[in-house]
From TrEMBL:
Superkingdom: Bacteria
Gene giving rise to this polypeptide: thiM
Keyword Kinase: yes
Descriptive protein name: Hydroxyethylthiazole kinase
Known cofactor(s): Mg(2+)
Enzyme Commission no: 2.7.1.50
One of the GO BP terms on file: thiamine diphosphate biosynthetic process
InterPro entries: Hyethyz_kinase (IPR000417), Ribokinase-like (IPR029056)
Matches recorded under SUPFAM superfamilies: Ribokinase-like (SSF53613)
GO molecular function: ATP binding; hydroxyethylthiazole kinase activity; magnesium ion binding
Function: Catalyzes the phosphorylation of the hydroxyl group of 4-methyl-5-beta-hydroxyethylthiazole (THZ).
Pathway annotation: Cofactor biosynthesis; thiamine diphosphate biosynthesis; 4-methyl-5-(2-phosphoethyl)-thiazole from 5-(2-hydroxyethyl)-4-methylthiazole: step 1/1
Residues engaged in binding ATP: 124, 178
Length: 277
């Protein structure tokens, strides 16, 4: 796939979302619900947040894509998350998994292990999370022991490349690894996306909301293009917002504004490079 073709598909994904206002429901962590919803709205999608099993099933069937984030787990999620993942898999609906803090706690480990057979359309995480998830699933490039520090990574994006490729090949979808330079792969190609801001590490929910935005784009584009588009939009908005602010509080506000104002052409032209696996 040549760069011009990827840019064309990014442009089409952004335009289609703005025109159709697709619903991508979310089960996300309690720390970032507001930011995830606002980011989905800013790019042109429709947001809906639930956590009960019956409501999650309704949302999975009614929406065009779903975002699942395992950040702050509640006991009810032991029922909700495997059930909705199974429904999404059976319905053939795209869904995004954010494997936040993989390796911490029995319930989180159990749920993430169950997701393996339901093959998420897009997997998003930092380098340590991607390495640990591949290890949990017994895939090449993974690590047996999680190296996450809360929600922070202790590993580089480059170190997670093999694990990301293995995960993408297993799911048949895409994997996005967030870092100073973001990596997105479909198992055959790797895209490195540039931009962003150092302030993104100083606010809560930059990664979580990116997962929600990827779900919005997954309603109209392939997993690989949806992941690239969401990442490009974030890198563009982050770089633009940083120029207008002096601290993380105002950055979050300006970031949402820039996400809203970014045109399809701007997002498609955000710097990236392509390499074969």
């Amino acid at each position: 796939m040549i760069k011009e073709e990827i840019q064309k598909q990014i442009f089409q994904a952004v335009e289609m979302v703005k025109q159709t206002n697709p619903m991508a429901g979310s089960i996300t962590n309690t720390v970032t619900i507001n930011f995830v919803a606002n980011a989905q709205l800013a790019v042109g999608g429709s947001a809906a947040m639930v956590y009960l099993p019956d409501e999650a099933e309704f949302l999975a069937k009614a929406g065009k894509a779903t975002y699942i984030n395992v950040g702050t787990l509640l006991p009810i999620y032991e029922q909700t998350l495997p059930h909705i993942a199974k429904v999404l898999h059976q319905e053939g609906k795209p869904w995004v998994l954010d494997s936040v803090a993989v390796g911490i706690g029995y319930l989180r480990t159990k749920l993430l292990q169950q997701f393996k057979d339901y093959k998420p359309t897009i997997i998003r995480g930092n380098a340590s999370e991607i390495l640990a998830l591949a290890g949990l699933w017994g895939l090449d490039g993974g690590t047996e022991v999680s190296n996450v520090r809360g929600v922070d990574s202790r590993d580089t994006v480059t170190a997670a490349k093999a694990a990301a490729v293995a995960l993408a090949k297993w799911t048949g979808g895409a994997v996005a690894v967030s870092g100073e330079t973001d990596l997105i792969t479909d198992g055959s190609l790797i895209v490195y996306s540039y931009g962003g801001s150092h302030f993104m590490q100083k606010i809560t929910g930059a990664g979580c909301s990116l997962g929600g935005v990827m779900a919005v784009y997954a309603t109209t584009a392939s997993p690989f293009i949806a992941a690239i588009t969401g990442t490009a939009a974030y890198n563009l908005a982050g770089a633009r917002a940083e120029k207008k602010v002096n601290g993380p509080g105002s950055f979050q506000v300006h970031f949402l504004d820039q996400l809203y104002e970014a045109s399809a052409d701007d997002i498609a032209k955000n710097p990236f490079e392509i390499k074969e696996v």
